Amino acid sequence: MSALSNPEAYALPPQRKGKRLEPGVKRTDVTREQLNVRIRPELKRAAAGLAGLQGMTLGDVVEAALIEYLKQARTDG
Questions:
Q1: Three-state SS for 7?
Q2: What is the pTM assigned to this prediction?
Q3: How many Å apart are CA 27 and CA 18, to the nearest integer?
């Protein structure tokens, strides 16, 4: 399945500090790849701080943003 054809299929619920997605399933069961990006330090601090307040990781925020980006690209053309 292509991420461009169905971006929602790649969404995971946000990480909840030590809690599992559902009984018997760990977030580590989902294959992950590392992505290195360069952004302004103040943007990273703001996003990480807000993510922490919401019980999410910065990686969760980046994944959600990428999914939204792919959804928008699909609807735009």
A1: helix
A2: 0.64
A3: 10
